[in-house]
Amino acid sequence: MKPAHSFTSTAIGILGLRLIAAGSVYLTQVMLARWLGRSALGTYAFASSLLIVLGTLSGLGLPTAATRFLPRYVAKGDGESVSRYLKFARIVGFGCGSTLGVVGWLGGEIGLYPVSAATLVALVGVPLFALLLVNSGAAHGLSAHHLSAVPNSARPLGLFLLVVAMWGLGMVGSVANVITGHLVVIIGVLAAQTYLLARTIRRYGGEHGAGSRREKATWLRTSSGLMLVGLTSTYLSELVILVTNISATPEELAVLNAVLRTAALLLFAMVAVDHVALPEYSTWYGAGDRERLIDVVRRATQLRLAAAAIGATLLLFAGPLILRLFGPGFGVGYWPLAVALTGLVLRAGAGGAAQLIVATSGTHELLGASVIGVVLGLVLNIATASISPVMAGALAFGSASAATAWMSRSICIRRLGFDPSVFGSLASWRRNRPYGQ
What we know:
Layout: H1 4-36, H2 38-58, H3 62-75, H4 79-109, H5 117-124, H6 126-141, H7 145-168, H8 175-202, H9 213-223, H10 229-233, H11 236-244, H12 250-286, H13 290-324, H14 334-349, H15 353-359, H16 363-384, H17 389-416, H18 422-431
Helix pairs in contact: 1-2, 1-7, 1-12, 2-4, 2-5, 2-6, 2-8, 2-11, 2-12, 3-4, 3-6, 3-9, 3-12, 4-5, 4-6, 5-8, 6-7, 6-8, 7-8, 11-17, 12-13, 12-14, 12-15, 12-17, 13-14, 14-17, 15-17, 16-17
């Protein structure tokens, strides 16, 4: 078993990379708000969210399911299955991404959302972003953190540097130019990641077949329950922005975007812990080692909650100053920021329940919890949008984050027989007995 200090140091290393990525995203959007104005930032937020949400759905959950299947294939020395899974996931991701890109274009044409040059460029990039997620999911499942965390940090950092260069050359004249630059960065990162991942997989051997019909059915059966996990765990803010766009002006959407990007600084810290813990969940569950599984869950829960509590306190203290970095008019987002951060702290208290289910069992129950959590958030969004679209979006984000996490905790208790939340940790500490037993 990976020792506690090794788990913590790896998580801290991933956290550092995630914070670089979050900082790059944040600075990029601050610069766009300053250079292009609030309305243009709202347009950019919608176009980039459309790209990310459709790209995430295109994988049909296969990038997330890789963290369940690939560690077990590696443990068995089954390199052929690793290669087959990756090839199948890439075919699905590119095919579904291309289809959703066309569907998204048709949706704009019939008036479901305002069409702009930026949204058209974003739709072209959907299959590319889907492939990037497939590669990252495979690297994550193989515990090749340098091929998952590093590229995920390189993409926003590359976009930040490109936007700075474009500004220096006088090319940041429209949102479409910025989205085009984003696609250029995605292509570069995707090419480098694909090459390095191929070298890594060659160590495991195996042929690059597409997998038997039975294998594909097994993979899709499992992954179909994980389709919304990526959205509810990592890209919920983008989903909220898409829905809020129905009732908000571009200026209001820009303020909501600033609020959710600020809250994402906290979310990135929590995702860093999940990034390290998820392959270990799958490994120890597959090996039938309950004691080691529970130990990893305990350490991950403590680290998540500590990161969330410290981060939320700092962001609440510095919130007004941080929001004003975007320019005049963004300070009204402070109380919506407090609501979003509250939801994330509540989510951290539930432990990594959703990620634990991904690695073990109950994926279709998790899909149900994700749907209920997202629907709850979106209903609150629509119901309160007439009062304030910005507060409505923050309320949707916070409530969906917390509700999905705590419903996932109930699934863990029922299926695995122990409580992954902070309450389970406290109960075991008070009774002076092994955690979860």
